[in-house]
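Per reviewer request, we include the raw input and output of the structure prediction for the construct analysed in the revised manuscript.
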Amino acid sequence: MKFKTYLETISGVQIYPMISLLLFIVFFVAVTYWAFKINKNDIEKYENIPLEK
């Protein structure tokens, strides 16, 4: 049996791809917003973390 056959037997399974797409979009927008709004001093601090002992 194929995996698709198992998914067809689950009632309401069509909502899960929509939920995962919505979560991905929300996460992507949040990270993009954070990247544009981050303070330049914080970026310099994060850049120097690997160089600190």
